[in-house]
TrEMBL record:
Classification via Gene3D superfamilies: Bordetella uptake gene, domain 1 (3.40.190.150), Periplasmic binding protein-like II (3.40.190.10)
Keyword terms of this UniProt record: Signal
Keyword 4Fe-4S tagged: no
InterPro entries, per database record: BUG, Bug_dom1
Keyword tRNA-binding assigned: no
Secretion signal span: 1-21
Entry protein name: Tripartite tricarboxylate transporter substrate binding protein
Organism domain of life: Bacteria
Family statement: Belongs to the UPF0065 (bug) family.
Classification lineage: Bacteria, Pseudomonadati, Pseudomonadota, Alphaproteobacteria, Acetobacterales
């Protein structure tokens, strides 16, 4: 039977010929956009996830770092991408914060969260407060006492104004009643590099990028923003245990697609991520080694988490206010 005869037979049964012609997804490489430079939390997560997806799809999944404006440039580029499943975003918890920060700065947001379809959360780690290993502060109490003696003299870095790392530090400095000098960078990776070179004094970071330097003894962790101590850093206390009950923050990573991406494509990607996070030992080992274990979440549970977390972070950004 010729292809034309098959299509006529399909039409006779009510099936659209277009369905026959539609190639299976993915039939070509799928770009995973990281809207930050290499070395930050989104990048550390994206690379083993992309490598695992390549094994499943038998297609290349290149990780493309597209930094700028604290994550806005890369994220907005995905919002404008064709909704065909061939451009995905590895986002951080700042995903909902950035449009609000644009409004605070009296600018039209470059994107809105409604332009994206959430697929799944991959990790969710409490942020860690880092200082250089040779810094004089052995504890949060030491840092706070020094900051009160020298307002504005101690610097902290971030991935940019209103970024995840900026918001986390704003929560801490507000609760402690101290004034630190904010030094924004183009991403968490450059901020961490600045910390290692002695350019800045403190940094909130996801544990993944920081863990190798903590193990090498180049950095010191003073506290974490979680409810419980991190398994990878059991000696590091939480801010909650140190008497800061409202200083709780998680830097999560999640995969999004442009809104309007066909449901079968979204479901294929979601299913692949679910199975990989549950069963792929290579992926799980890579994320564990990076200090960011799998914290997979999907569907209604992830959407509910995303909405609740976004509302809390937007409130924090509004407390920061307009940044000159």
């Amino acid at each position: 039977m010729s292809r034309r005869d098959v299509m006529l037979a399909l039409a006779a049964t009510g099936l659209a010929p277009a369905a026959w012609a539609q190639p299976a997804w993915p039939s070509r490489p799928v770009q995973m956009i990281v809207p930050f430079p290499p070395g930050g939390q989104a990048d550390v997560t994206a690379r083993p996830v992309a490598a695992a997806l390549e094994r499943v799809f038998a297609q290349a999944v290149p990780v493309v770092n597209r930094p700028g404006a604290g994550g806005i440039l890369g994220t907005s580029s995905v919002s404008r991408a064709a909704p065909d499943g061939y451009t995905a975003l590895m986002a951080l918890s700042s995903h909902a914060v950035l449009p609000e920060s644009e409004r605070i700065q009296d600018r039209v947001p470059a994107y809105t969260t409604e332009q994206f379809a959430p697929v799944a959360r991959i990790t969710a780690d409490p942020t860690v407060l880092l200082v250089p290993a040779d810094a004089p502060w052995r504890s949060v109490a030491d840092l706070v006492a020094d900051a009160r003696r020298r307002p504005g003299a101690i610097t902290f870095g971030s991935a940019g104004n209103y970024s995840t790392l900026h918001v986390a530090m704003a929560m801490f400095t507000g609760a402690a009643g101290i004034d630190l000098l904010h030094v924004p960078f183009q991403g968490g990776g450059p901020a961490l590099t600045a910390m290692l070179s002695g350019t800045i004094h403190a940094l909130a970071s996801g544990p993944g990028p920081a863990l190798p330097h903590l193990r090498e003894g180049r950095l010191r962790a003073l506290a974490s923003w979680g409810q419980e101590r991190l398994p990878a850093l059991p000696e590091v206390p939480t801010f909650i245990k140190l008497g800061y009950p409202d200083v709780e923050f998680y830097i999560w990573t999640a995969v999004f697609l442009p809104a309007g991406t066909p449901a079968p494509v979204r479901e294929r990607l979601r299913t692949a991520l679910r199975d990989l996070c549950a069963r792929d030992e290579g992926l799980r080992r890579a994320l564990d080694a990076a200090g960011s274990p799998v914290a997979f979440q999907e569907g209604e549970a992830f959407e509910a988490f995303f909405q609740a977390d976004s509302a809390r972070l937007i409130q924090a950004v509004r407390r920061i206010g307009k940044v000159d």
